[in-house]
Amino acid sequence: MSSGRLPPPEPVIELSTTSPVTSLAFSPHRALGENEVTLYSGHQDGKIIKWNWVTRRPESSTLAHGESIIWLMCVAEKLVSQGRDGVVKFWSVTDPEWTVIGEIPCAALIFCNSSICIFNNLHLLSVPSDSVGQVTTHCLEQLLPESSHIVHLSTPIQLHHKDTKSHGMCMRIKSEADRVPTPYLFVAYESGTLTMWDLLKGEILTEISAHEESIMCMDCWAGMDTGTIKCITGSVDEQLKLWQVDDLKLTHKKTVKVLNPGMGSISVRADGKIIAVGGWDGRCRLFSLKSMKALAVLTFHRSSVQCAAFASNNNLATGSKDGYIAVWNIYNT
């Protein structure tokens, strides 16, 4: 007799690489149609790979950085990469050519990512600074598909916490400008502190002691109707925490405990329905953002899930220290 349980989900695509996967980013592919996407993967050896969906093999690649790739993002058909070598690079990728159209310095030999948001036709790039606990925001002319270089429009904005000695290094940053009156920046610190800043003024609005140990991963999302911002954080323990911005204050909404300690990545789907949480145990756990109810556990990887990314068609890609990338077609409506 059937138990009534659904079989565990399996990836629809499996991609093998020779170096641990440290970052993933999807880009819509206009030539293939709005529901088709391009996947880029960043690796510990400093390489970035552009993948071909049909052959399941690399379409092109480049040795982008002298150290591990920390962060990837696709903007206006450009690829932005950050390496532990202390450089953020803007790429124009026309197979097989990879052309750097701009570079911006950032802190080296750390693991904190950068973040980009668009506000009033500006691209605001926030990067970890060489000064411990400081973030620098660069105001750039809005990138377009035909852009051949980046244009700085003003002096960079410095966000410097007065208590960096006790807060330690920045661990994660995330800017948010969708459906909000002014752009905000969320900064997670080594001490477990979570802060929210007015990005344009460089002023701190609120902070809270979110975790007892370092915040290892974070993502944010602004509500489609209300613009209410929710923030999800994970640490080295079993606790996944949901925060909400109410009257410019961070308030704790819910804590969910997972089976094994250690979280390496968090990604919120664009529609705000699903959270993907990559664990040190090799599992990727899916939760409902609204209720924080556990939806599924994806078991494919043999080592820590270091990154996860949703595509515009709601496919989910997970990347692991084991060198594999898995693409999942689950809860995609």
From TrEMBL:
The UniProt keywords, alphabetically, are: Repeat, WD repeat
Name where the WD repeats lie: 298-333
Q: Which Pfam families match?
A: WD40
Question: SUPFAM superfamilies, alphabetically?
Answer: WD40 repeat-like (SSF50978)
Keyword tRNA-binding applies: no
- Answer whether the UniProt record assigns the keyword tRNA processing to this protein: no
PANTHER family reported in the protein's UniProt record: GUANINE NUCLEOTIDE-BINDING PROTEIN SUBUNIT BETA-LIKE PROTEIN 1, TRANSDUCIN BETA-LIKE 3
Name recorded for this polypeptide: Guanine nucleotide-binding protein subunit beta-like protein 1
What organism does this protein naturally occur in?
A: Biomphalaria pfeifferi
